[in-house]
Design a protein that fits this description.
Layout (H helix, E strand, L loop, with lengths): L2 H27 L2 H9 L3 H11 L2 H34 L5 H34 L1 H18 L1 H18 L11 H14 L4 H12 L10 E2 L6 E2 L4 H10 L4 E6 L1 E10 H9 L16 E4 L4 H11 L3 E5 L5 E6 H9 L11 E5 L2 E5 L4 H8 L13 H9 L8 E4 L2 E9 L2 E9 L1
Parallel strand pairs: 2-3, 5-6
Antiparallel strand pairs: 1-7, 3-4, 6-7, 8-9, 9-12, 10-11, 11-12
Helix pairs in contact: 1-4, 1-5, 1-6, 2-3, 3-6, 4-5, 4-6, 4-7, 8-9
Length: 427
Protein backbone atom coordinates (compact mmCIF):
# COMPACT_ATOMS: atom_id res chain seq x y z
CA UNK A 1 0.00 0.00 0.00
CA UNK A 2 1.46 3.34 -1.03
CA UNK A 3 1.72 6.34 1.31
CA UNK A 4 -1.00 8.16 -0.64
CA UNK A 5 -3.40 5.26 -0.28
CA UNK A 6 -2.64 4.98 3.44
CA UNK A 7 -3.24 8.70 3.98
CA UNK A 8 -6.55 8.52 2.10
CA UNK A 9 -7.64 5.61 4.29
CA UNK A 10 -6.62 7.55 7.43
CA UNK A 11 -8.64 10.58 6.28
CA UNK A 12 -11.64 8.32 5.65
CA UNK A 13 -11.28 6.74 9.10
CA UNK A 14 -11.04 10.18 10.71
CA UNK A 15 -14.24 11.23 8.93
CA UNK A 16 -16.01 8.09 10.14
CA UNK A 17 -14.80 8.60 13.71
CA UNK A 18 -15.88 12.25 13.61
CA UNK A 19 -19.33 11.14 12.43
CA UNK A 20 -19.77 8.76 15.35
CA UNK A 21 -18.42 11.32 17.87
CA UNK A 22 -20.83 13.93 16.53
CA UNK A 23 -23.74 11.48 16.68
CA UNK A 24 -22.92 10.59 20.28
CA UNK A 25 -22.54 14.11 21.68
CA UNK A 26 -25.54 15.63 19.90
CA UNK A 27 -27.94 12.95 21.13
CA UNK A 28 -26.68 13.29 24.71
CA UNK A 29 -26.69 17.11 24.68
CA UNK A 30 -30.01 17.66 22.90
CA UNK A 31 -32.64 19.25 25.14
CA UNK A 32 -35.99 17.50 25.12
CA UNK A 33 -37.91 20.77 25.44
CA UNK A 34 -36.26 22.14 22.31
CA UNK A 35 -36.77 18.86 20.42
CA UNK A 36 -40.42 18.77 21.44
CA UNK A 37 -40.82 22.31 20.17
CA UNK A 38 -39.23 21.35 16.83
CA UNK A 39 -41.47 18.27 16.60
CA UNK A 40 -44.57 20.37 17.29
CA UNK A 41 -43.50 22.69 14.49
CA UNK A 42 -43.61 19.75 12.08
CA UNK A 43 -40.06 18.34 12.07
CA UNK A 44 -40.51 14.54 11.98
CA UNK A 45 -36.79 14.02 12.53
CA UNK A 46 -37.05 15.67 15.97
CA UNK A 47 -39.73 13.14 16.90
CA UNK A 48 -37.36 10.31 15.93
CA UNK A 49 -34.59 11.82 18.09
CA UNK A 50 -37.01 11.97 21.03
CA UNK A 51 -37.86 8.28 20.59
CA UNK A 52 -34.17 7.38 20.42
CA UNK A 53 -33.50 9.37 23.62
CA UNK A 54 -36.15 7.31 25.41
CA UNK A 55 -34.35 4.05 24.48
CA UNK A 56 -30.78 5.04 23.53
CA UNK A 57 -29.19 1.62 24.02
CA UNK A 58 -29.05 0.55 20.36
CA UNK A 59 -27.93 4.00 19.27
CA UNK A 60 -24.93 4.16 21.61
CA UNK A 61 -24.04 0.55 20.87
CA UNK A 62 -23.59 1.41 17.18
CA UNK A 63 -21.60 4.51 18.15
CA UNK A 64 -19.20 2.50 20.29
CA UNK A 65 -18.81 -0.26 17.69
CA UNK A 66 -17.95 2.38 15.12
CA UNK A 67 -15.56 4.35 17.33
CA UNK A 68 -13.66 1.31 18.53
CA UNK A 69 -13.42 -0.30 15.10
CA UNK A 70 -12.19 2.93 13.52
CA UNK A 71 -9.67 3.52 16.32
CA UNK A 72 -8.17 0.04 15.87
CA UNK A 73 -8.01 0.36 12.08
CA UNK A 74 -6.56 3.84 12.32
CA UNK A 75 -3.80 2.65 14.58
CA UNK A 76 -2.93 -0.28 12.31
CA UNK A 77 -2.99 1.71 9.07
CA UNK A 78 -1.26 4.76 10.53
CA UNK A 79 1.57 2.86 12.17
CA UNK A 80 2.12 0.63 9.13
CA UNK A 81 2.19 3.49 6.64
CA UNK A 82 4.25 6.08 8.53
CA UNK A 83 6.73 3.95 10.48
CA UNK A 84 8.93 2.93 7.49
CA UNK A 85 9.46 6.56 6.47
CA UNK A 86 10.36 7.64 10.00
CA UNK A 87 12.64 4.61 10.38
CA UNK A 88 14.62 5.52 7.25
CA UNK A 89 14.83 9.11 8.44
CA UNK A 90 16.28 8.17 11.85
CA UNK A 91 18.67 5.46 10.57
CA UNK A 92 21.28 8.11 9.85
CA UNK A 93 21.58 8.99 13.56
CA UNK A 94 20.95 5.69 15.35
CA UNK A 95 20.91 1.94 15.01
CA UNK A 96 18.27 0.09 13.00
CA UNK A 97 16.52 -1.28 16.10
CA UNK A 98 16.48 2.12 17.81
CA UNK A 99 15.26 3.89 14.68
CA UNK A 100 12.38 1.40 14.36
CA UNK A 101 11.34 2.05 17.98
CA UNK A 102 11.52 5.82 17.56
CA UNK A 103 9.67 5.58 14.25
CA UNK A 104 6.87 3.57 15.90
CA UNK A 105 6.61 6.14 18.71
CA UNK A 106 6.46 9.04 16.27
CA UNK A 107 3.82 7.33 14.14
CA UNK A 108 1.77 6.51 17.23
CA UNK A 109 1.89 10.10 18.54
CA UNK A 110 1.00 11.62 15.16
CA UNK A 111 -1.93 9.27 14.56
CA UNK A 112 -3.25 9.80 18.11
CA UNK A 113 -2.92 13.59 17.82
CA UNK A 114 -4.69 13.74 14.46
CA UNK A 115 -7.53 11.50 15.62
CA UNK A 116 -7.85 13.38 18.92
CA UNK A 117 -8.21 16.78 17.26
CA UNK A 118 -10.17 15.98 14.10
CA UNK A 119 -12.13 12.89 15.17
CA UNK A 120 -12.94 13.77 18.79
CA UNK A 121 -12.39 17.32 20.06
CA UNK A 122 -13.52 19.24 16.98
CA UNK A 123 -16.73 17.25 16.28
CA UNK A 124 -17.75 17.27 19.94
CA UNK A 125 -17.30 21.02 20.29
CA UNK A 126 -19.19 21.43 17.02
CA UNK A 127 -22.00 19.22 18.31
CA UNK A 128 -22.27 21.13 21.59
CA UNK A 129 -22.73 24.41 19.73
CA UNK A 130 -26.14 23.42 18.33
CA UNK A 131 -26.96 19.84 19.39
CA UNK A 132 -30.63 19.72 18.41
CA UNK A 133 -30.14 20.98 14.85
CA UNK A 134 -27.29 18.52 14.21
CA UNK A 135 -28.99 15.61 16.01
CA UNK A 136 -32.00 15.67 13.68
CA UNK A 137 -29.61 15.38 10.72
CA UNK A 138 -27.63 12.52 12.27
CA UNK A 139 -30.56 10.39 13.38
CA UNK A 140 -31.44 9.12 9.88
CA UNK A 141 -28.03 7.64 9.00
CA UNK A 142 -27.69 6.27 12.52
CA UNK A 143 -31.00 4.44 12.28
CA UNK A 144 -29.81 2.89 9.01
CA UNK A 145 -26.63 1.69 10.75
CA UNK A 146 -28.67 0.32 13.66
CA UNK A 147 -30.66 -1.79 11.17
CA UNK A 148 -27.54 -2.85 9.28
CA UNK A 149 -25.67 -4.04 12.36
CA UNK A 150 -28.75 -5.36 14.13
CA UNK A 151 -27.24 -8.75 15.19
CA UNK A 152 -24.19 -7.10 16.74
CA UNK A 153 -26.32 -4.37 18.26
CA UNK A 154 -28.67 -6.93 19.80
CA UNK A 155 -25.80 -8.93 21.32
CA UNK A 156 -23.98 -5.98 22.87
CA UNK A 157 -27.20 -4.27 24.02
CA UNK A 158 -28.42 -7.43 25.76
CA UNK A 159 -25.05 -7.85 27.45
CA UNK A 160 -25.13 -4.26 28.68
CA UNK A 161 -28.76 -4.56 29.85
CA UNK A 162 -27.87 -7.63 31.90
CA UNK A 163 -25.02 -5.72 33.53
CA UNK A 164 -27.35 -2.84 34.40
CA UNK A 165 -29.86 -5.27 35.94
CA UNK A 166 -27.16 -6.94 37.99
CA UNK A 167 -26.10 -3.54 39.35
CA UNK A 168 -29.72 -2.49 39.97
CA UNK A 169 -29.44 0.56 37.71
CA UNK A 170 -32.33 1.99 35.61
CA UNK A 171 -32.43 1.13 31.92
CA UNK A 172 -34.43 4.23 30.89
CA UNK A 173 -33.24 7.81 31.30
CA UNK A 174 -35.19 9.89 33.80
CA UNK A 175 -36.25 13.05 31.95
CA UNK A 176 -38.47 14.55 34.62
CA UNK A 177 -37.96 18.29 34.85
CA UNK A 178 -38.19 19.67 38.38
CA UNK A 179 -38.71 23.22 39.58
CA UNK A 180 -35.05 23.26 40.60
CA UNK A 181 -34.08 22.49 36.99
CA UNK A 182 -36.20 25.36 35.69
CA UNK A 183 -34.85 27.78 38.29
CA UNK A 184 -31.30 26.76 37.43
CA UNK A 185 -32.01 27.45 33.75
CA UNK A 186 -33.50 30.88 34.49
CA UNK A 187 -30.56 31.78 36.74
CA UNK A 188 -28.17 30.80 33.97
CA UNK A 189 -30.23 32.89 31.53
CA UNK A 190 -30.07 35.88 33.88
CA UNK A 191 -26.29 35.55 34.22
CA UNK A 192 -25.95 35.32 30.43
CA UNK A 193 -28.11 38.41 29.93
CA UNK A 194 -30.83 36.53 28.04
CA UNK A 195 -33.30 37.02 30.90
CA UNK A 196 -33.66 40.19 32.95
CA UNK A 197 -32.79 39.79 36.62
CA UNK A 198 -36.25 40.99 37.68
CA UNK A 199 -37.92 38.57 35.29
CA UNK A 200 -35.88 35.73 36.77
CA UNK A 201 -36.94 36.80 40.25
CA UNK A 202 -40.60 36.75 39.25
CA UNK A 203 -40.20 33.16 38.02
CA UNK A 204 -38.50 32.20 41.29
CA UNK A 205 -41.34 33.83 43.24
CA UNK A 206 -43.92 31.77 41.32
CA UNK A 207 -42.24 28.54 42.43
CA UNK A 208 -42.13 29.83 46.01
CA UNK A 209 -45.92 29.99 46.14
CA UNK A 210 -46.06 26.27 46.81
CA UNK A 211 -43.73 26.53 49.84
CA UNK A 212 -44.91 29.78 51.41
CA UNK A 213 -47.85 29.62 53.79
CA UNK A 214 -50.69 32.07 53.58
CA UNK A 215 -49.66 33.50 56.96
CA UNK A 216 -46.46 34.88 55.43
CA UNK A 217 -48.29 37.49 53.31
CA UNK A 218 -51.64 38.00 55.03
CA UNK A 219 -52.75 41.17 56.78
CA UNK A 220 -52.45 40.15 60.42
CA UNK A 221 -55.34 40.33 62.87
CA UNK A 222 -54.20 43.54 64.57
CA UNK A 223 -54.10 45.41 61.25
CA UNK A 224 -57.50 44.30 59.94
CA UNK A 225 -60.03 47.06 59.38
CA UNK A 226 -63.50 45.61 60.03
CA UNK A 227 -67.10 46.69 60.65
CA UNK A 228 -69.82 45.63 63.02
CA UNK A 229 -73.06 44.74 61.30
CA UNK A 230 -74.93 47.48 63.18
CA UNK A 231 -72.31 50.24 62.76
CA UNK A 232 -73.91 53.55 61.74
CA UNK A 233 -73.07 55.19 58.42
CA UNK A 234 -70.80 57.76 60.10
CA UNK A 235 -68.58 54.99 61.48
CA UNK A 236 -68.38 53.26 58.10
CA UNK A 237 -67.44 56.51 56.34
CA UNK A 238 -64.79 57.34 58.93
CA UNK A 239 -63.29 53.86 58.77
CA UNK A 240 -62.91 53.71 54.99
CA UNK A 241 -61.32 57.17 54.99
CA UNK A 242 -58.86 56.30 57.76
CA UNK A 243 -58.09 52.77 56.55
CA UNK A 244 -58.68 52.37 52.80
CA UNK A 245 -58.78 48.73 51.73
CA UNK A 246 -60.42 46.79 48.92
CA UNK A 247 -62.73 44.82 51.25
CA UNK A 248 -63.81 44.89 54.89
CA UNK A 249 -64.96 41.97 57.05
CA UNK A 250 -68.35 42.50 58.69
CA UNK A 251 -68.66 40.94 62.13
CA UNK A 252 -71.21 40.27 64.83
CA UNK A 253 -69.90 41.46 68.18
CA UNK A 254 -66.18 40.78 67.59
CA UNK A 255 -63.75 39.93 64.80
CA UNK A 256 -63.97 36.17 65.46
CA UNK A 257 -67.63 36.10 64.43
CA UNK A 258 -67.46 37.07 60.75
CA UNK A 259 -70.79 37.41 58.93
CA UNK A 260 -69.30 38.25 55.54
CA UNK A 261 -67.53 41.13 53.87
CA UNK A 262 -68.37 44.32 52.03
CA UNK A 263 -66.65 45.45 48.83
CA UNK A 264 -65.08 48.92 49.00
CA UNK A 265 -65.95 49.62 45.33
CA UNK A 266 -69.63 49.09 46.07
CA UNK A 267 -69.41 51.40 49.06
CA UNK A 268 -67.80 54.15 46.96
CA UNK A 269 -70.46 53.75 44.26
CA UNK A 270 -73.22 54.16 46.84
CA UNK A 271 -71.54 57.24 48.29
CA UNK A 272 -71.13 58.85 44.84
CA UNK A 273 -74.74 58.10 43.93
CA UNK A 274 -76.05 59.46 47.24
CA UNK A 275 -77.30 56.12 48.55
CA UNK A 276 -77.07 55.30 52.27
CA UNK A 277 -74.23 53.15 53.68
CA UNK A 278 -76.18 50.72 55.81
CA UNK A 279 -76.57 46.97 55.64
CA UNK A 280 -80.29 47.21 56.31
CA UNK A 281 -80.71 49.71 53.46
CA UNK A 282 -79.26 47.84 50.51
CA UNK A 283 -75.51 47.61 51.20
CA UNK A 284 -74.63 44.10 50.05
CA UNK A 285 -73.04 41.69 52.52
CA UNK A 286 -71.03 39.09 50.57
CA UNK A 287 -70.35 35.59 51.87
CA UNK A 288 -66.75 35.39 53.03
CA UNK A 289 -64.33 32.71 51.88
CA UNK A 290 -62.71 31.21 54.99
CA UNK A 291 -59.41 29.32 54.69
CA UNK A 292 -57.10 27.72 57.29
CA UNK A 293 -53.78 29.37 58.09
CA UNK A 294 -51.72 26.31 57.09
CA UNK A 295 -52.53 26.52 53.38
CA UNK A 296 -49.84 27.42 50.89
CA UNK A 297 -50.26 30.38 48.57
CA UNK A 298 -50.80 27.98 45.66
CA UNK A 299 -53.68 26.36 47.53
CA UNK A 300 -55.17 29.77 48.34
CA UNK A 301 -55.07 30.67 44.63
CA UNK A 302 -56.99 27.46 43.90
CA UNK A 303 -59.55 28.39 46.57
CA UNK A 304 -59.96 31.84 45.00
CA UNK A 305 -60.49 30.26 41.60
CA UNK A 306 -63.04 27.73 42.81
CA UNK A 307 -65.02 30.28 44.83
CA UNK A 308 -64.65 33.09 42.25
CA UNK A 309 -63.50 35.37 45.05
CA UNK A 310 -60.47 37.58 45.61
CA UNK A 311 -60.81 38.08 49.40
CA UNK A 312 -60.56 35.51 52.18
CA UNK A 313 -60.66 35.31 55.96
CA UNK A 314 -57.85 33.25 57.53
CA UNK A 315 -58.54 31.26 60.69
CA UNK A 316 -56.38 29.04 62.89
CA UNK A 317 -57.16 25.59 64.27
CA UNK A 318 -59.24 27.16 67.07
CA UNK A 319 -61.46 28.97 64.53
CA UNK A 320 -60.05 32.35 65.56
CA UNK A 321 -59.42 34.94 62.87
CA UNK A 322 -55.69 35.49 62.42
CA UNK A 323 -55.70 37.58 59.24
CA UNK A 324 -57.15 38.34 55.83
CA UNK A 325 -55.68 37.93 52.37
CA UNK A 326 -56.57 39.21 48.92
CA UNK A 327 -55.64 38.09 45.44
CA UNK A 328 -53.59 41.27 45.18
CA UNK A 329 -51.50 40.16 48.18
CA UNK A 330 -50.60 36.92 46.41
CA UNK A 331 -49.81 38.64 43.11
CA UNK A 332 -47.67 41.22 44.92
CA UNK A 333 -45.65 38.31 46.29
CA UNK A 334 -45.10 37.07 42.75
CA UNK A 335 -44.20 40.45 41.29
CA UNK A 336 -41.99 41.45 44.23
CA UNK A 337 -40.05 44.67 43.67
CA UNK A 338 -41.84 45.33 40.38
CA UNK A 339 -44.97 46.51 42.22
CA UNK A 340 -43.81 47.38 45.75
CA UNK A 341 -43.75 51.08 46.59
CA UNK A 342 -40.83 52.69 48.48
CA UNK A 343 -42.95 53.43 51.55
CA UNK A 344 -44.04 49.78 51.66
CA UNK A 345 -40.56 48.28 51.82
CA UNK A 346 -40.08 45.86 54.67
CA UNK A 347 -36.34 45.54 54.07
CA UNK A 348 -34.33 48.78 54.00
CA UNK A 349 -30.63 48.59 53.22
CA UNK A 350 -28.78 51.17 55.30
CA UNK A 351 -25.29 50.51 53.93
CA UNK A 352 -23.18 47.65 52.59
CA UNK A 353 -23.26 45.74 55.89
CA UNK A 354 -26.54 46.58 57.63
CA UNK A 355 -30.29 46.35 57.01
CA UNK A 356 -33.39 47.52 58.90
CA UNK A 357 -36.11 44.88 58.56
CA UNK A 358 -39.72 44.76 59.72
CA UNK A 359 -40.43 41.89 62.10
CA UNK A 360 -43.33 40.56 59.99
CA UNK A 361 -41.18 40.23 56.86
CA UNK A 362 -41.46 36.70 55.39
CA UNK A 363 -38.31 34.74 56.16
CA UNK A 364 -37.90 33.82 52.47
CA UNK A 365 -37.59 37.51 51.62
CA UNK A 366 -34.99 37.93 54.36
CA UNK A 367 -32.97 34.99 53.03
CA UNK A 368 -33.09 36.40 49.52
CA UNK A 369 -32.00 39.88 50.59
CA UNK A 370 -29.14 38.59 52.73
CA UNK A 371 -28.17 35.67 50.44
CA UNK A 372 -28.61 33.10 53.22
CA UNK A 373 -29.11 29.60 51.85
CA UNK A 374 -30.51 27.86 54.94
CA UNK A 375 -32.19 28.87 58.18
CA UNK A 376 -32.44 26.78 61.37
CA UNK A 377 -35.77 25.00 62.05
CA UNK A 378 -37.36 26.42 58.86
CA UNK A 379 -40.71 24.67 59.45
CA UNK A 380 -41.30 26.39 62.80
CA UNK A 381 -41.86 29.98 61.63
CA UNK A 382 -42.81 32.13 58.66
CA UNK A 383 -41.47 35.58 59.56
CA UNK A 384 -38.31 37.21 60.90
CA UNK A 385 -40.07 37.71 64.24
CA UNK A 386 -40.86 33.99 64.37
CA UNK A 387 -37.20 33.18 63.63
CA UNK A 388 -36.09 35.29 66.61
CA UNK A 389 -38.67 33.70 68.92
CA UNK A 390 -37.60 30.20 67.93
CA UNK A 391 -33.92 30.99 68.38
CA UNK A 392 -34.37 32.79 71.73
CA UNK A 393 -37.09 30.38 72.97
CA UNK A 394 -39.02 33.34 74.40
CA UNK A 395 -40.65 36.60 73.39
CA UNK A 396 -37.76 38.89 72.39
CA UNK A 397 -37.06 42.16 74.17
CA UNK A 398 -35.37 45.25 72.83
CA UNK A 399 -31.58 44.77 72.33
CA UNK A 400 -31.94 40.96 72.20
CA UNK A 401 -29.81 39.55 69.40
CA UNK A 402 -29.26 36.32 67.49
CA UNK A 403 -26.35 35.39 65.23
CA UNK A 404 -26.75 33.15 62.20
CA UNK A 405 -25.18 32.74 58.78
CA UNK A 406 -22.63 35.50 59.29
CA UNK A 407 -25.25 38.05 60.42
CA UNK A 408 -26.37 39.47 63.76
CA UNK A 409 -30.12 40.09 64.17
CA UNK A 410 -30.77 42.69 66.89
CA UNK A 411 -34.26 43.66 68.05
CA UNK A 412 -34.60 47.45 67.85
CA UNK A 413 -38.25 48.04 68.71
CA UNK A 414 -41.00 45.98 70.37
CA UNK A 415 -44.62 47.13 70.61
CA UNK A 416 -46.90 45.03 72.83
CA UNK A 417 -44.84 41.88 72.27
CA UNK A 418 -44.78 42.58 68.53
CA UNK A 419 -41.31 42.93 67.01
CA UNK A 420 -41.46 46.07 64.89
CA UNK A 421 -37.90 46.57 63.70
CA UNK A 422 -34.80 44.37 63.55
CA UNK A 423 -31.31 45.61 62.77
CA UNK A 424 -29.31 43.08 60.75
CA UNK A 425 -25.55 43.53 60.64
CA UNK A 426 -23.02 41.54 58.66
CA UNK A 427 -20.40 40.12 61.02
Amino acid sequence: MTLTQSLLIIVLLIAMSAFFSLAEITLAASRRLRLRQMADEGDARAERVLRVQEQPGHYFTVVQIGLNAVAILGGVVGEGSLSPYFARFFEGWMSVEASENVAFLCSFIIVIAVFLVFADLFPKRLGMSDPERIAVRMVGPMLVLITTFKPLVWFFTRSTDMLFKLLGMPLVRDDKITSADILAMTEAGARAGVLAVREQQVIANVFELDTRLVSSVMTVRDNIAWFLHDDPESVLRARIVAEPFSAYPVCDGDIDHVLGYVDAKEMFQRVLSGQPLAFDQGLTLHKALVVPDRLSLTEVLEQFQQAHEDFAIIVNEYSLVVGVITLNDVMSTVMGDLVSMPDEEQIVKRDENSWLIDGVTPIQDVQRALHIDEMPHPDDYETLAGFLMVMLRRVPKRTDSVSWGGYTFEVMDVDSYRIDQVMVTKT
